[in-house]
Design a protein that fits this description.
By secondary structure, the chain is of the alpha/beta class. Helix content is about 40%, strand content about 15%. The protein has helices spanning about 15, 25-35, 55-65, 65-70, 80-90, 105-115, 130-135, 160-165, 190-200, 210-215, 255-265, 275-285, 285-310, 330-340, 365-380, and strands at about 40, 95-100, 120-125, 140-145, 170-175, 205-210, 235-240, 250-255, 315, 320-325, 345, 350, 360. Bound molecules: pyridoxal-5'-phosphate.
């Protein structure tokens, strides 16, 4: 055990109780640790095809001689061009768009803007861990709704009625991930609309659509259209997943202008750097690339699920670019994770979510999925 942190008593009470986010290990570190090469990383739900080729061209232009001076300058703090491009893409006014250093930043801004120790925020038991971190850091009361139980329809998914039941006059934020990470579960639009209709206007619903591009179904409405009816809705999206820009850190919120104006008061003035802004604009312009990536993901995810099933491992239905695979026990999941690391496949343990018998696996390229499935077959035959 590590020695007690001598500064812990000096920290804000909310911070002294925080458990930090545990990121997956970088590929190079795993390769060094296990003495392997050509490891594949299926741990963080990035787009294995990367961003549109147009992004590289746009970045090259920024990094050319003249623009190298560009990175000596502060970025455009208002993100004028990116917010305009997003506003046009989404059919909203630029004043409704808040840029973040990843959508993580927007989630934290929402917490900082609306939460105090006298307020509460609601999220699902197995939802994206950043909600808990953001709520706890503000010292607000976290009200954790039980997920749908294993075996039920939409097992481990959000139970919107359970979430609704936790709302009272102290509640400021209610987080919904659609689809959710790490479970891959989703909520139907009709159920979401019913929840929105049932809530008092003072409860802000944070609809996290980090995997929207992968999840969209024919006939689905764009949640942005709901803002007209529900000004207490904030939609949060990212360039980290389908758009392939995870490293550059850029995401955004879409909301009523009044909410965006408040977030803007808390936002660091230069929270999104110049390269990220340029890359995001270029990425947004190439929707064909996104379509192709979504198609490739659907094929890889189907192959992954079929392969898991063939090996006797159940996977939750997923609308993300990843699946949550069930290994039956925490011990088996841990042993499998260790086995996969030695075989050069990095997946994501989710014990920190209270889901110790599962591993989250990103649907990478077809070749990556084959490598994973071969390693899993190997694990199966030895255990
Ligand atoms: C990955 C992810 C995000 C945010 O990622 P950023 O890189 O900070 O934009 C947000 N929500 C969910 C559910 C995610 O899985």
């Amino acid at each position: 055990m590590s020695p007690r942190n001598p500064y812990i008593d000096l920290a804000a009470p909310a911070v002294s109780e925080l458990a930090p986010y545990l990121p997956g290990k970088p590929v190079a570190e795993v390769e060094r640790e296990f003495g392997i090469t050509d490891a594949v990383k299926l741990a963080s739900n990035e787009n294995p095809r990367g961003p549109s080729p147009r992004v590289r061209e746009a970045l090259a232009r920024v990094l050319d001689e003249q623009a190298t001076a560009g990175i000596a300058r502060y970025p455009d703090g208002a993100g004028y061009y990116l917010r305009s491009a997003l506003a046009e893409h989404l059919g909203v006014a630029p004043e409704q768009v808040t840029l973040g250093n990843g959508s993580n930043d927007v989630l934290v801004l929402l917490a900082e803007t609306f939460l105090t120790p006298a307020t509460s925020a609601i999220y699902d038991e197995y939802s994206f861990v950043v909600y808990r971190l953001a709520v706890q850091a503000c010292g607000a009361e976290a009200r954790v709704a039980a997920s749908r139980p294993p075996g039920a329809a939409q097992a481990l998914g959000h139970d919107l009625a359970a979430m609704r039941a936790l709302v009272d006059e102290t509640t400021r934020l209610l987080f919904i991930a659609n689809p959710n990470n790490p479970t891959g579960t989703w909520v139907e639009q009709q159920a979401l609309l019913e929840l929105l209709r049932s809530l008092p206007p003072g409860v802000i619903v944070v609809l996290d659509e980090a995997y929207l591009e992968y999840a969209r179904q024919p006939g689905d409405a764009d949640a942005v259209r709901w803002l007209a009816e529900f000004p207490n809705l904030v939609i949060v999206r990212t360039f980290s997943k389908a758009y392939g820009l995870a490293s550059l850190r850029v995401g955004y919120g879409v909301s009523a202008p009044g909410i965006a104006e408040l977030l803007n008061r808390v936002r660091q003035p230069f929270n999104v750097n110049s390269l990220a802004q340029v890359a995001a604009i270029a990425a947004l312009e190439d929707q064909h690339w996104i379509d192709a990536c979504v198609e490739a993901n659907a094929a890889a995810r189907a192959e992954l699920c079929a392969g898991l099933e063939q090996l006797g491992f159940a996977a939750l239905p997923s609308r993300g670019n990843f699946v949550l695979a069930d290994f039956g026990s925490a011990a088996t999941a841990a042993a499998c994770n260790d086995f996969l690391l030695r075989a050069g496949v990095i997946v994501r343990p989710v014990a920190n979510y209270g889901l110790a018998r599962y591993l989250r696996i990103t649907a990478g390229t077809a070749a990556e999925v084959r490598k994973l499935l071969a390693a899993l077959a190997d694990f199966r035959s030895r255990s």
